[in-house]
């Protein structure tokens, strides 16, 4: 099973990275693949409750690849970690099949309580460079999170999200109109008072002239 997942990860790089020339080159030279290989062995030890060995393997992988994947994280197959320097994937994070993760991505947790505290990514999710996904919620299949976005809420399938905090801008390839901000009565009265104050000052200046 581990060898099959490793092969699928190599094929994912060949299919989705135009710079990849051969399976041998990917296997020997791509640190994202190396991090996934180390992780799959570390996760096996983690599942068999050999936590120290699992964490030791993950720390060795972090030293050589600059990619930190906790051995408890559950990763699908066909994952591409492209230019993976700075990627951090937490203990209870889950990543579906055929996902693409770029450099500087964090799948992080919030709070200090034990249990599920990291995000779950569906299949075919793309996470742009520098994006942060923080919290124990689900990101649906075929979603795209833009570079440097900070996602704090779940996403439905086929959604594109951008910004800080991230908000959906497309669903099924169709743009989502921005929500119109409703002005409260208090805000309206404050604006009205400011306008009146400005008018009064303008009149005073005109009289002085």
UniProtKB/TrEMBL annotation:
UniProt subcellular location: Cytoplasm
Coiled-coil intervals, chain numbering: 178-208
Domain Serine acetyltransferase N-terminal, residue spans: 2-36
Major site of localization recorded for this protein: cytoplasm
GO cellular component: cytoplasm
Keywords of the record: Acyltransferase, Amino-acid biosynthesis, Coiled coil, Cysteine biosynthesis, Cytoplasm, Repeat, Transferase
E.C. number(s) listed in UniProt: 2.3.1.30
Catalytic activity: L-serine + acetyl-CoA = O-acetyl-L-serine + CoA
One GO BP annotation of this record: cysteine biosynthetic process from serine
A Pfam family recorded for this sequence: SATase_N
Record-linked InterPro entries: Hexapep (IPR001451), LbH_SAT (IPR045304), Ser_AcTrfase_N (IPR010493), Ser_AcTrfase_N_sf (IPR042122), Ser_O-AcTrfase (IPR005881), Serine_acetyltransferase (IPR053376), Trimer_LpxA-like_sf (IPR011004)
Pathway: Amino-acid biosynthesis; L-cysteine biosynthesis; L-cysteine from L-serine: step 1/2
Gene Ontology molecular function, alphabetical: serine O-acetyltransferase activity
Record carries keyword Cytoplasm: yes
PANTHER family named in the record: SERINE ACETYLTRANSFERASE
Similarity-based family: Belongs to the transferase hexapeptide repeat family.
Protein name (database record): Serine acetyltransferase
Source organism (scientific name): Candidatus Enterocloster faecavium
């Amino acid at each position: 099973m581990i060898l099959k997942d490793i092969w699928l990860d190599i094929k994912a790089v060949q299919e989705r990275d135009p710079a990849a020339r051969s399976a041998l080159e990917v296997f020997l030279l791509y640190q994202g693949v190396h991090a996934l290989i180390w992780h799959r062995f570390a996760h096996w030890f983690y599942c068999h409750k050999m936590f120290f060995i699992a964490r030791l393997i993950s720390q060795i992988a972090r030293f050589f690849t600059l990619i930190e994947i906790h051995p408890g994280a559950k990763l699908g197959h066909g994952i591409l970690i492209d230019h993976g320097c700075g990627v951090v994937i937490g203990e209870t994070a889950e990543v579906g099949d055929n996902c693409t993760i770029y450099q500087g991505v964090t799948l992080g947790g919030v709070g200090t309580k034990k249990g599920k505290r990291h995000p779950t990514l569906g299949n075919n999710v793309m996470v742009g460079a520098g994006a942060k996904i923080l919290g124990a919620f689900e990101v649906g299949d075929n979603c795209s999170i833009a570079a440097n976005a900070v996602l704090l809420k779940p996403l439905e399938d086929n959604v594109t999200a951008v910004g800080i905090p991230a908000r959906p801008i497309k669903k099924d390839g169709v743009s989502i109109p921005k929500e119109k901000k409703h002005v409260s009565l208090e805000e309206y009265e404050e604006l009205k008072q400011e306008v009146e104050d400005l008018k009064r000052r303008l009149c005073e200046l005109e009289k002085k002239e």
